[in-house]
């Protein structure tokens, strides 16, 4: 009788899907390539992203190879550039990504990925919505939530003490963005930078995370995320997960209440 009982138990186990076997809601491609200043974050971020994928039931394709852009990008609800500059893609891969966005694909750009070489890929500069120039040294400042109706702000305080490289941006392509986080320049020194460089304050309007439509898709950009320990921080991971959720699905953002 014991072999029969074991067989029945095995059959019952195979008939009931585990949480890990649940159908995924969508598929996310993450390109995370090491560079001179951004490499220690990779194993930490990968582990956290894999946990997020299990917790929120989405498929994760994590890669450090741009060859992923040689395949069919239509399988992905969103493509994330994680601390990886766009110039890593060759001309054919850039064309595939452009076609993906024009067909309704979606993109998420995190920290270093928002920096592009001048005139190297103007289309991607316009996708980001802002052009990153210099940035001050990593400092502790106060991040301020400007849109509580957007998912990337749901898990962070209204005023959030955070240490990062607060990028200085310009808008040469005259793009429109919807800002969700800004940084309060009175809480750190926006001019503190390395010898030989100059950093000027942006003033009250200093966006550090935003979203926007582009081509036929959605784009979410956060310039936060410089070092590895950040990818263990629950609030930062909530910020990223809110961005992933909205970018991949278009859901979760609530409209401003109507005025009568």
From TrEMBL:
Family matches, as Gene3D superfamilies: 3.40.50.880
SUPFAM superfamilies, A to Z: Class I glutamine amidotransferase-like
Alphabetized InterPro entries for the sequence: Class_I_gatase-like, ThuA-like
Domain ThuA-like: 28-247
Pfam families tied to this protein: ThuA
Domain of life: Bacteria
PANTHER family: GALACTOSE-BINDING DOMAIN-LIKE SUPERFAMILY PROTEIN, SECRETED GLYCOSYL HYDROLASE
The protein's name: ThuA-like domain-containing protein
Organism: Sphingomonas prati
